[in-house]
Design a protein that fits this description.
The chain is mainly beta. It folds into 3 domains: about 25-165, Immunoglobulin-like (Sandwich); about 170-250 and about 405-430, Immunoglobulin-like, CATH 2.60.40.10; about 255-385, no CATH class. It is about 5% helix and about 40% strand. The strands form 7 sheets. Strands 1, 3, 5, 7, 11 and 12 form a 6-stranded mixed sheet that branches. A hairpin with a 4-residue loop joins β16 (about 230) and β17 (about 235-240). It is globular and about 65 Å long. The N and C termini lie far apart (about 80 Å).
Length: about 425
């Protein structure tokens, strides 16, 4: 064969190969570093510690337990999904680090682990991914964003999830304090804590340290740059009386439909109307004026579980999907505000698909959601009209200082000689464990 012809054929094969594996290029500086689902056919998108569904997506650098990411693609031909991870600053903006600075392995990888649903009316494909893995290992602590995307028929991001990787380089001692003074004492909680740097070098703590505090993974009202009330030679004290307060809110509402043959608590009716199951929840009411009542919730999370047809060994692929109707009694429609369903089941998003509509005939706010069998926490929140209006979690739920809440504390350090926010401590506090 002519040498030029061989060279031409080789060049054409090389072009075809490169076209097939050409990496997805997107402007990382324009990516919003939040938990968000961009595709309507992606359901039950979750990220947590391996084998612990209700845990937060926070893992130790080089620790024994990694993260598990999963989602379902509903009633359509399975696509090829890819992922990458981005390093972020302490306040959730893309950092200046290159991939090779914070990770070993490949910048772009395919999600290869997937299974088809078994014996369900709703057909879906369950995708899963463990981090770290053979293709990608992280070598720096800090905030990260998992970015999942497709390449065909067009390149686009389909979902993003936040997670953290921490090191235990300093110690933190503290507690949730419900003894708040003045006008806040009945409804608020705060966390008092002390950071002890031990032998970790921090030369200018006011400039080098960034401290974030989050209630129940609700990032919209997190404190992202807390300042100490006192700086000592071997400790940094955070014990403000009224500077960093959290509305304690109320225990989450809940329901369970892992059994489609029986109506459990707060489930009014279950009916199969081809091709879907329909679940009517008992209409809710405002809890604002009710006294506090203790309840064992999971702080807004959910657990996938099924007893359907005695198939409960593999709930990820044996659980059925159903259309669940949420109803909230209210005498009239709120003026100048909207009502949303809120919790992990809505990815903590305030998008249009989770906005409730008022039914003039039933005097209820109503919403239909396509959910996988399991146990769910949720609440109803109010968002006033107008740009920049904050979420009101308490209008329908009430607020009590006795409420059980998780508080997640993250301590970051930016060494003047380094170009990233190192996560040097992660501590979880619970208001019941005092």
């Amino acid at each position: 064969m002519n040498f030029r012809l061989v060279t031409l054929v080789f060049a054409m094969l090389l072009v075809m190969h490169c076209t097939d594996v050409y990496p997805f290029e997107f402007e990382r500086d324009t990516v919003t570093c939040v938990d968000r689902i961009y595709e309507k056919n992606l359901k039950t998108v979750r990220l947590h510690l391996q084998d612990w569904e209700v845990s937060y997506p926070v893992m130790e650098l080089y620790g024994e337990v990694g993260l598990e990411f999963s989602f379902d693609q509903i009633e359509s031909q399975p696509q090829d999904y890819y992922y990458t991870v981005m390093h972020c600053t302490y306040d959730w903006k893309p950092s200046n680090l290159m991939f090779v600075d914070y990770a070993d392995g490949f910048d772009e990888n395919e999600i290869r682990n997937y299974d088809e649903s078994q014996s369900t009316y709703v057909q879906y494909t369950h995708f899963s991914l463990n981090l770290p893995n053979d293709d990608l290992q992280l070598k720096l602590s800090g905030n990260y964003l998992l970015v999942v995307f497709v390449k065909e028929p067009e390149e686009r991001i389909v979902c993003t999830k936040r997670f953290m990787v921490y090191e235990n380089l300093v110690t933190v001692e503290g507690r949730v304090n419900s003894n708040v003074f003045g006008e806040f004492k009945k409804e608020f909680q705060k966390v008092d804590f002390v950071i002890n740097p031990k032998n970790y070098p921090v030369y200018n703590p006011l400039d080098e340290l960034k401290v974030s505090l989050v209630q129940n993974w609700q990032w919209d009202d997190a404190y992202a740059d807390m300042q100490p009330s006192f700086v000592g030679s071997n400790s940094y004290v955070f014990e403000w009386e009224d500077r960093y307060l959290f509305n304690a809110a109320n225990e989450y509402r809940y329901f369970n439909f892992n059994n489609l043959e029986l109506n459990s608590e707060y489930v009014e009716n279950i009916e199969y109307r081809k091709p879907y199951y329909y679940i009517d929840l008992v209409p809710g009411k405002s809890h604002y004026f009710e006294p506090y009542a203790s309840a064992e919730d999971i702080n807004g999370g959910y657990i996938i579980k099924t007893n359907r047809r005695n198939n409960n060994n593999f709930p990820e692929i044996q659980s059925e999907y159903a259309i669940v109707r949420f109803r909230l009694n209210n005498p009239s429609m709120l003026g100048g505000a909207s009502v949303y369903l809120y919790g992990s089941l809505t990815n903590h998003e305030l998008s249009q698909q989770y906005k409730m509509k008022y039914n003039m005939e039933t005097h209820c706010y109503e919403l239909l959601m396509f959910l996988k069998q399991g146990y769910y926490n949720y609440r109803y929140v109010v968002v006033p009209e107008g740009e920049g209006a904050g979420m009101d979690r308490y209008f329908f739920e009430g607020s009590h200082r006795q409420t059980e809440n998780d508080y997640l504390l993250f301590v970051y350090h930016r060494n003047p000689s380094e170009s990233y926010d190192r996560l040097i401590n992660y501590t979880k506090f619970n208001s019941r464990n005092q």
